[in-house]
Design brief:
It contains 1 helix and 5 strands; from the N terminus they run E-E-E-E-H-E. A 5-stranded antiparallel beta sheet has the order 4-3-2-1-5, covered by helices on one side. Strand 1 and strand 2 form a beta hairpin. It starts with a strand and ends in a 20-residue tail after the last strand. It has one domain. Helices cover about 15% and strands about 30% of the residues. It is extended and about 65 Å long. The protein is of the alpha+beta class and about 100 residues long. The mean pLDDT is about 90.
C-alpha cells in the first residue's frame, strides 16, 4: 500500500508491506511535491515493536524520528495525523487503437 498523510503540518508518503503490527514501513518526507528525506523500519525485526500499536501511531513516531534526524522544523507542531484523500482519478485512453490505412 502506498498512501500519503499529513502530520505536524508536513506531508509524507508511506509505503507499507506486510501484516498489521509487523509491517515494513518506508516513509518519505514530501517537500514541495518532491521526494525529500526518507526513513524505514521493519517492525518484524524491531525488538521494541509493539504489534498492538496502530499503524498511524507508528508512522507518526517514524515521522518524528525523520524530522529530528534531518533537522526539519514542522510547519504546524500541534497538527495530528491525517490520511490524505487518495488520488484515484486517472486519465486513460478509450482502448480503441487507430491505425493509418495504407493506400
Amino acid at each position: 500500500m502506498v498512501r500519503e498523510f499529513s502530520y505536524r503540518g508536513e506531508t509524507f508518503r508511506a509505503t507499507i508491506h506486510g501484516r498489521p503490527g509487523i509491517e515494513e514501513l518506508f516513509l518519505i518526507h514530501m517537500v514541495d511535491d518532491e521526494e525529500g528525506p526518507e526513513i524505514s523500519l521493519d517492525r518484524f525485526e524491531d525488538p521494541n515493536n509493539d504489534p498492538t500499536q496502530s499503524l498511524e501511531d507508528k508512522l507518526s513516531e517514524l515521522a518524528d524520528q525523520l524530522m529530528q534526524e534531518h533537522g526539519v522544523t514542522p510547519m504546524d507542531p500541534d497538527a495530528g495525523f491525517a490520511w490524505a484523500k487518495p488520488k484515484t482519478g486517472v486519465k486513460v485512453h478509450s482502448g480503441v487503437q487507430h491505425h493509418a490505412m495504407e493506400a
